[in-house]
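writing this on my phone so excuse typos. first protein, seq and then structure
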Amino acid sequence: MENIALIESFSEFKDDKLIDRVTLMAILEDVFRNALKKKYGEDDNFDIIVNPDKGDLEIWRNRIVVADGEVEDDNREISLTQARKIEPDFEVGEDVSEEVKLIDLGRRAILALRQNLISKIHEHDNTNIYKQFKDLEGEIYTAEVHHIRHRAIILLDDEGNEIVLPKDRQIPSDFFRKGENVRGIIESVELKGNKPTIIMSRTSPVFLEKLFEQEIPEVFDGLITIKKVVRVPGEKAKVAVDSYDDRIDPVGACVGMKGSRIHSIVRELGNENIDVINFTNNEQLFITRALSPAKITSIKMDEEARTAEVMLKPEEVSKAIGRGGHNIRLAGQLTGYEIDVYREGVEEDVELKEFSDEIEDWVIAEFSKIGLDTAKSVLEQDVADLIRRTDLEEETVQDVFRVLRSEFE
C-alpha cells in the first residue's frame, strides 16, 4: 500500500501523545479532507476510512456514471467507459466508488499532509495542556529545574511540560541547581500563538496561603480560615487567621508547639519571618495586633481617610517599624490603614528633617529606616549600636551627634 510510510506514524502519535482513538481519527480525517479539497476543489463526495490502531487508511471517491462525452464535473461524474474499466457491469446513473491512493495526491501533497498532521497533533496537545494548567492556576505545583537562565529558570514536570519561573517571581535567597525540585504556585497560563506559556511564582501571597493549606490540617479542613496574607518575599509576612469554632486557637494551631507546624513553611520560603495574627472586625484591635511585636500605648483613627496615628514608648518605635520598614508597611497592607507612629513625651523633640541643611538627606534616611526620625530618638542610642544597625560610618554618626547636641545645648 502506497500510504504505508505515512500511516506508520499514526500509531506512534497515538502512543507518544496519549491521544484517544476517537480524537486521533477526527484529526486524521480533517487533515486528509483538507488535502482532498486542495487537489479536487471539494471533499463532499469522498469517504475516508481510518483505522489508527492497525495503521490503515482508505480514501474512496464517489461519482455518478454518465454517458461518454457528457462528463461536466470530473470530480463528481465518470464516463461509462471509465466506469466499466473499474467494473464491467456499470450502467449510466449508477454510483461508482473508486479508491484514491495517496500517491495520486502527489509527492508535495503527501509531505504537506504529514506536516499538517504533526501541526494538528501539537495544536491538540497544546490546547489540552492549556486547559490542564488553566485549571491549576493558584495551586501549588512541583517541577524539576531543567535550565537556568539569567532572567528565569525553566522547569519540566513529569510529563515534560515546560514551566517558567521568572527572576522576579523567585524569593531573593532562592538558589536552585539543575535537577532540583521546585515548588511554587501556577500564577498564570497564556496561549502565545499555539503554545501555552505557564508561569510559576514563589513570591505571590497565594503561595504562602496554599502552603498553610498544605501543612496545617485545620486550614485544609476549613476549621481555620485565612483572611489575608501580605508579604515581602524572603523577608517578612503577616497572615491574618480566624476560626468560627471558639474551641480552636487559630494562631496556636498554625504555629504549633515551639513553631513546629510553621517551621517547614518558613524553611520553604528562605527563612521568611511569618507573623500569624488573630483576625478581628474591631479595626483598632486589628491594627494593634498587626503592629506586633511592638506594644502600643494609644491609637487615633480616621476611618473615612483610612489613617491611624499610633502612640508608642520610644523603645517600641523601632519594633513597630521593623527592619527596612517592613513591619509597619505590612501592617498597613494587612489592615488597609496608613499608619503613622509617634513617640510619647517628645513634645520638645525636633524632627531630623529639620537638620537637612547640616545633615545629608541620605543619612537622615538611614536613621528613618530603623525608626529614628527625631533628634532625641537618635541621641538616646548607643553609637556602636547605630553603626551596626545602619550603613553609616562611625565618623558620620559622631558628626550627627555633634550637630544634634548643639541644638539642645
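second protein below, same order as before
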Amino acid sequence: MRALEHRNFRLYFLGQAVSILGSWIQQVAMAWLVYRITGSAALLGITSFAALIPQLLVGPLAGAWIDKHDKRKWLMRVQGLLAAQALVLAGLTWLGWVGPGLLIFMAVCLGVCNAFDTPLRQSLISVFVERREDLPNALALNAMLFNTGRFIGPPVAGLLLGLTSEAACFALNALTFVALFVAVARVKVAGTPRAEGSVGDVFKEGLAYAWHTWPVRMLITVLMALNLTASAYAVLLPVFAADVFAGDARTLGLLWGAAGCGAFGSTVFLATRRSIPGLIGAISLGTTVSAVALLAFGWTRLLPVAMAAMVALGFGISVCNVGINMLLQSMAPDRLRGRIVSFFTSGRFGFDALGGLLAGFIATAIGPGRTMILEGVLLLAFVVFLQTRRERLAGHVAEHDAAAG
C-alpha cells in the first residue's frame, strides 16, 4: 500500500473507490435490462460492443488530444458528462421509454465518454505519485479498486435489482461520480508537460513509438488476443445465469462477483511485486489460466464449478491486463504517456467490444457453452505463440528497467 503515502494519490484512490462501485452496478443493471426486455444474446453482444467500441475508434485520438490539454481539469469535466449519461438513462428507464435502439444509443454515449475518461484517469496516476518506483504499486492499487468494485458491485446490483429496479441502479451510479470530482478538485499538482502540434501529428508520434518499440508492440498484441477471446465471457453471463443455470439477477450477480473475486486476488498479488521484468511470467501464467477457465466454464452445468471457473478467469484476465498496463506505463516516456495509455485502453476495451459482439452472434448459432469452449481453444493456441516470444520479451523489459533505474 506504499503508493497511498502520496496525498494526491490517496485522494484520488478514495474518490475512485466510490465511482468504480457505481460503474459496476450500472454495468450489471444494463446487461440485465437488455436481456430482460429482449431475451436476445445477440443484442447483449451488440450493446456491449456499442459501449466499448469507441475505446478502439476514438481512444487513440483521445490520447493525443489528452496530451495537449490539462488532464486534471478535463477529468473533472468528464465526470460531469458521465453523471449526466447515468441520470438520463435512469429517467428513461423509470418512464418505460427504453427499447433496443435507445439502449444501444445510450451505450454509445457512455463509450465515447469512457474513451476520454479511462486514459485521463490512468495517465494522471503518474502525476499523483511523485516517486517513480511507487508507480507500479499505484497502478496495481488502482486495478485493485477496479476489481474490488467488480467483486462487490455485481452482487450489490443483483440485490438492488431484486429490491428496486434498473432505474434506481443507474441513478445511484450518477451520484457516485461526485466523489471522484471532489477528490480530483482537492488534488494539488504542478502543471504537466503538454504536447505541441496538431492532434494528428501528436497521434502519429505516439503511434510511431508504439509500432517501432518491439516490447510495446508485443504487449499490445497479447492484450488484444486476450480480450478478443477471454473477456468476451461478460457478454454471455446473463444467458448462462438465466438459461444454463436457471437463475435470476442474483445468479448473474454471483457469477460476475466470482470473476471479480479472482480479479481482486490478482491485483493483491501484483501489488506485492517489486520486479518489473518478473511481470512477464505473470502475464504468461494469466493467459494460460484464462484459456483453461474458459474451457471449464463452457463445459460445466454445475453452478459451483462455474463459479470456481469464474474466479480463475477473473484472476487470469486481470493479471494480464493490469500487468501489461504496469509494464507499458513503466516504459512510456512522460511526454507520450497519454497516448500509450490510450493505446492500452483501445486494445483492452476495443477488442473486448469486438470479442463480445462475435460471442453474442456465435452463441446464437451454436449456444453459449460451445462458444466459451471455442474461445478457450483459440486462446490456448495463442499461448503457444506467446511462449516462443517470452524470453525475448523478458530480456527487453529487463534492459529498459535497468536503464531507467
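The mean pLDDT is 86. thats all i got for now
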